[in-house]
Amino acid sequence: MKSIVSVPLPSNPYDVVVATAGIDHLGTWLAEGETALVKPGQKLLLVSNPAIFKQYGDRALTTLSKAGYSVETCLLPAGERYKTLTSIQKIYDAALGFRLERKSAMVALGGGVIGDMTGFAAATWLRGVSVVQVPTSLLAMVDASIGGKTGVNHPQGKNLIGAFHQPRLVMIDPSVLKTLPPREFRAGMAEVIKYGVIWDRDLFETLEAAPRLDHYRYLGDQLLHTILTRSCQAKAEVVSQDEKEAGLRAILNYGHTIGHAIESLMHYRGVNHGEAVAIGMVAAGHIATALDFWSEADAARQLALLEKTGLPTRLPAGLDFEAILTSLQGDKKVEEGQVQFVMPKGLGAAVVTGEVTRDAILAALEAMA
Ligand code: GLY
């Protein structure tokens, strides 16, 4: 199975390829004929982490060498806590040692952390070299690898340092999800459900019709392919209408406002990003019902889908509501003191509003305690 989703950005159009065994064809995709994205013979710096590289590194290196590239590898430790400028320095050191040139490229083989860091290093090395994203987690496949947001964390906050730098190609090989831990798979499904709620009602209903969504093995190849292509399509459509988040793109932050507050208050332990987003979506759903953005029935359908996926839908024990409200004020999305919330407008559409009151947020949190 193979699908191509275009991201038609005027200054930098690119494709997201969803293809079984895609990793084994990466070299051909990059090198192909007249349309060569990175000319064969060029140098590529492959950035990954040791566990992912052990599983998929050889396959990636084989296809890239066969296609005529000269490839060097830079391995970084796995995990969000290594998403720092120190790791970026290691990529720069490897790029320098390998004498990467302006026409060379970096290839990110890994999840969101590797993708964001490689993208940022590529955005800044020699004032910008090409980057190719080969995401290996569901979350990275449907979200982080597309749209050009790159960066690292500052000790005071997530993703505070970064740049927009669109990839030349995103290569998604669904079969790599087989080795993804089930909890990570469910975390990615939170973003998939998000696209159903804010953009693609059909996708939402396809997910509702699936008997089970809580583990990769229950989905089957066809449904997985549909989920990946529809999610990438949703992200591509939003990003191509608003690359730098001047307006529409902010709807992709659905569930992330309260979700980020929870992640940060829990110091990124005990709850992962997708789980926090799922909880944030339930909270936003309560608020949207109270403020008449959607119906109680819509909120109940969202809740049922998240529960079917095995995602948490209640607030983690012990979180202080006042601390959540204070943390919201520190969100990147605050504008003139007003927290910006994404509200679903029925199923399949969403708007951003600064009109959500403190009382509405508190009532949602109380309902979820
Ligand atoms: N993950 C949200 C965005 O790419 O805009």
What this model shows, in words?
With 369 residues, the protein is an alpha/beta fold. The chain has two domains: 2-179, Rossmann fold (3-Layer(aba) Sandwich); 183-215 and 243-368, Dehydroquinate synthase-like, alpha domain, CATH 1.20.1090. The chain contains 13 helices and eleven strands. It has helices at residues 26-31, 50-66, 85-97, 112-124, 138-144, 182-198, 201-209, 221-241, 256-265, 273-290, 296-308, 321-329, 358-367; strands at 2-7, 14-19, 43-48, 70-75, 105-110, 130-135, 149-154, 157-164, 169-172, 341-344, 350-353. The chain has a seven-stranded mixed β-sheet. Glycine binds next to loops.
First-to-last CA distance:
44 Å
Helical fraction: 40-55%
Beta content: 15-25%
The first-level CATH class of the largest domain is given as Alpha Beta
Bound molecules: glycine
**Helix and strand composition category:** alpha/beta
Largest sheet: 7 strands, mixed
Examine the coordinates and then state which fold CATH places here, giving the name of the CATH topology of the largest domain. Answer: Rossmann fold
Q: Per the principal axes of the C-alpha atoms, what is the gross shape?
A: globular
**Count of beta strands:** 11
H-E string: EEHEHEHEHEHEEEHHHHHHHEEH
What integer value in Å does the Rg equal? 20 Å
Oligomeric state as shown: single chain
CATH architecture of the largest domain: 3-Layer(aba) Sandwich
